[in-house]
Amino acid sequence: IAACLIQTPWSITGAMILMIAHGLTSSMLFCLANTNYERTHTRTLILARGFQTILPLMTSWWLLANLTNMALPPTINLMGELTIISALFNWSQPTIILTGLGTLITAIYSLHMFLTTQRNKLPLH
């Protein structure tokens, strides 16, 4: 949102790249969440634990989706975020703090979601 508001050429380019990346990444995460629902018949991800032993291929897809969500190289998310971060930093240097905080929160949530659904012990139900 901030990239669209400052309206520099780099920020607009980064915003467009990130919009495309978000569409691909969020679609992948929703598809995987739906696959979890089809297997467990519950929408609560905390009840869907230990899938690594049951569905190892789906665990690989969850890992790929979460790494893409965290904008790790060589994903398109990283290109968009780096473009936006450089545009924001050139516009106002204190924005790097907010950007870093947002990136940290996204990484923590993505890792927590992956570890909870894939690496915990199997539920008894």
TrEMBL record:
Functional note: Core subunit of the mitochondrial membrane respiratory chain NADH dehydrogenase (Complex I) which catalyzes electron transfer from NADH through the respiratory chain, using ubiquinone as an electron acceptor. Essential for the catalytic activity and assembly of complex I. Core subunit of the mitochondrial membrane respiratory chain NADH dehydrogenase (Complex I) that is believed to belong to the minimal assembly required for catalysis. Complex I functions in the transfer of electrons from NADH to the respiratory chain. The immediate electron acceptor for the enzyme is believed to be ubiquinone.
Top EC category: translocase
Chain ranges passing through the membrane: 12-33, 45-64, 96-115
Family according to the record: Belongs to the complex I subunit 4 family.
Subcellular localization: Mitochondrion membrane
A Gene Ontology molecular function term of the record: NADH dehydrogenase activity
Keyword flag Membrane: yes
Domain of life of the organism encoding this protein: Eukaryota
Membrane topology: Multi-pass membrane protein
GO biological process, any: ATP synthesis coupled electron transport
Protein name stated in the entry: NADH-ubiquinone oxidoreductase chain 4
Species the sequence originates in: Ctenosaura melanosterna (Black-chested spiny-tailed iguana)
Gene: ND4
Keyword ATP-binding: no
